[in-house]
């Protein structure tokens, strides 16, 4: 199993829920609520904001920010939302930058972890164009053992697509995985793994690096 992360996914969600009761920091609270939904949780919040950012400005004012949090059903009160908004609105312009927001929200990772994630990405991105697609996976990812392929329910391409959807954004299933999406996914997984050594071993095994 290439991604090998279902168990970590569960561990991470449990760990996040447990830590939630202990934290008073609104940033940590928001991060943990996202992680409690699995590694795609932060990405999901990003997508909720994207829907609300109707004019595609890649910025949000406070009302849009609050609407996004409510839309995603995050339990945060207005005062906490204001405090959060202030953290992200570094230049006090009254708007926050979308991408900066998601980066700040992403659980911090050591350089060693980022490097091994990039190694896995580069291995998968056979064409080297900075995006992983079905084409990249052909010949690299063996579907022959996949239960749904074995019982004839799925074609090889359907297995590939399902695999890519692990990393893809929930509202934007374009069958392409960018470096950013891959990083976001593994930042979630990384949050459930305490030591760099263990994380690196897991990545090496999962991707045969």
TrEMBL record:
Swiss-Prot/TrEMBL keywords: Calcium, Metal-binding, Repeat
Domain EF-hand as annotated: residue spans: 40-75, 76-111, 112-147
Record has Calcium as a keyword: yes
One of the Pfam families matching this protein, by short name: EF-hand_7
Molecular function (Gene Ontology), one example: calcium ion binding
SUPFAM superfamilies membership: EF-hand
Record-linked PANTHER family: CALCYPHOSIN, CALCYPHOSINE LIKE
Protein name as it appears in the record: CAPSL protein
Origin organism lineage: Eukaryota, Metazoa, Chordata, Craniata, Vertebrata
């Amino acid at each position: 199993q290439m991604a090998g992360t279902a168990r970590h996914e569960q561990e991470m969600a449990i760990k996040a829920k447990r830590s939630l009761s202990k934290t008073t920091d609104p940033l940590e609270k928001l991060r943990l609520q996202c992680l409690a939904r699995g590694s795609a949780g932060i990405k999901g919040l990003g997508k909720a904001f994207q829907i609300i950012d109707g004019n595609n400005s890649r910025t949000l004012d406070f009302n849009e920010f609050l609407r996004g949090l409510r839309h995603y059903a995050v339990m945060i009160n207005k005062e906490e939302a204001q405090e959060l908004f202030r953290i992200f609105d570094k230049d006090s312009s009254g708007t926050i930058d979308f991408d900066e927001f998601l980066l700040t929200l992403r659980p911090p990772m050591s350089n060693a972890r980022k490097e091994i994630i990039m190694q896995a990405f580069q291995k998968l991105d056979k064409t080297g164009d900075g995006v992983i697609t079905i084409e990249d996976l052909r010949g690299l990812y063996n579907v022959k053992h996949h239960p749904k392929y074995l019982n004839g329910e799925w074609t090889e391409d359907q297995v590939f697509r399902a695999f890519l959807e692990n990393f893809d954004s929930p509202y934007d299933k374009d069958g392409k995985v960018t470096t950013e999406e891959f990083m976001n996914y593994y930042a979630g997984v990384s949050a459930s793994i305490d030591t760099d050594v263990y994380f690196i071993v897991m990545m090496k095994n999962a991707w045969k690096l």
